Amino acid sequence: DLKRMPYDPALAAPSYRYENGGVTGLSYLDYSAMGELYTSAYLSWTKASDASTVKLYTAKGTVGNGGVVTPGSWDSGTVIDNSGSYTVTGLDADAYYQFKLEVAGGAHAGESNTIEHYSGKLDATKFGLTAGEGAGTARANKAALNSAISWLNSIGGGTLDIPGNGNNDEPLSYPTGTVYLKSNVYLYIETGARLHAQSGTMDGPESAWWSYGDYASGTNASEDPYANPDNFLSKQDDGHCFFQNCMIYARRADNIKIIGTGRLDGNGVLSTGDGTVHKKTPNKCDDMLSFKLCT
């Protein structure tokens, strides 16, 4: 099994595993945005003891506007030691790569599956993120950010870059609705970038089957929630019992980070207090960050 790992392989445990019949598999471990990994990738595989040679193939492609991935052509391959690990160095920053092994001789002869890697930081504008203001821009940015995060998560991890202009006093503003951070994805906010909440575009709280009436689906209660002493959920501000109604949300995600020197701004949109229960779903956001059962 060929794996891509953090620079220090002792820091991670396997998180993705792929098999390709009897051929030595290629896998991908937890992503780590250490400096070296922006231009290198650490690979590991199950050593094929009876192989005569092991060859590593690399293809460099692109990620274009709209998040369109265009794979590159495979190189002629490099014979590497069948040691079970290899560090690929000298990768171009901000490029899409694929790797695979070819094993000659023995029971595992043949090609492995292909793994993917994005070196450097992925510019979120490639997926449609735009600077501006207003609910329309926020909804588009919400879709762009969540699409980019999902793609990075699907290839094993990476750093999503929110580009700035270098000036935090007059930054580029990116309004957004609720963003869902996923395992092995880092959100990097550059200097001069302001990612901020936008009213009317936030997701509501998750469903709670033990609540009652319209409140269970995140809409306004059709009766006075305070009239029923048993409805304890409506006695709180959604932040004590619910997590999804926030600006950036993650649930059961591992190895996630928000980094950089830009600005993350609630923009006065966050609502607190018991009165939150009376508000409609897009305006029930009461937390900037809500990470549930995460590392």
List keywords for this structure.
about 300 residues; mainly beta; six-stranded antiparallel beta sheet; four-stranded parallel beta sheet; 1 helix; about 5% helix; elongated
Structure, briefly:
The chain starts with a strand and ends with a strand. The relative contact order is 0.13. With 295 residues, the chain is mainly beta.
Could you walk me through the main structural features you see in this protein, from its secondary elements to its overall organization?
The chain is mainly beta and 295 residues long. Helix content is 7%, strand content 32%. It has one helix and 21 strands. The protein has one helix at residues 135-154; strands at residues 3-5, 14-16, 28-29, 41-44, 53-63, 69-70, 78-80, 85-88, 95-104, 110-111, 115-119, 121-123, 158-162, 172-176, 179-180, 185-189, 193-197, 246-251, 257-260, 263-265, 287-292. Strands 5, 6, 7, 9, 10 and 11 form a six-stranded antiparallel β-sheet that branches. The protein is elongated and about 65 Å long. Mean pLDDT is 77; it is low at 6-30.
